[in-house]
Amino acid sequence: MLKKNKESKIAENLKKLKKEHRLSQSDLCKKADLAYHTVAKIENGATPDPRISTIIKLAGALQVPIDELVN
């Protein structure tokens, strides 16, 4: 149950931050050097526990601290 809430929070924060930075999914993928499907799976909750390396890339691309993405 806790894992599902965490998953939802990461997905929710990713969508919010993407919108705030006016980035399309493709733009974010390029900035983060990640595959499109990787970001899509995180955003739609299909990847419940993304790798820390992926989270670091996303946070860097969005120019936010990691905790802002995961909390």
Structure description:
The protein is mostly helical. It has one domain (about 1-70): lambda repressor-like DNA-binding domains (434 Repressor (Amino-terminal Domain)), CATH 1.10.260.40. Helix content is about 70%, strand content about 0%. The chain contains five helices and no strands. It has helices at about 1-20, 25-30, 35-45, 50-60, 65-70. The protein is globular, with a radius of gyration of 11 Å. The two termini are about 15 Å apart. About 20% of the residues are buried.
Q: If classified by CATH, what would the architecture be?
A: Orthogonal Bundle
C-alpha Rg (nearest Å): 11 Å
Q: Could you state the CATH homologous superfamily? A: lambda repressor-like DNA-binding domains
In angstroms, what separates the terminal alpha carbons?
16 Å
Please report the total strand number as a whole number.
Answer: 0
- Classify the helix fraction into a percent range: over 70%
Mean pLDDT: 89
Structural class: mainly alpha
Order of helices and strands: HHHHH
Level-1 CATH class name: Mainly Alpha
Number of domains: 1
What profile does the largest beta sheet have?
none
Give structural attributes:
434 Repressor (Amino-terminal Domain); 5 helices; 71 residues; mainly alpha
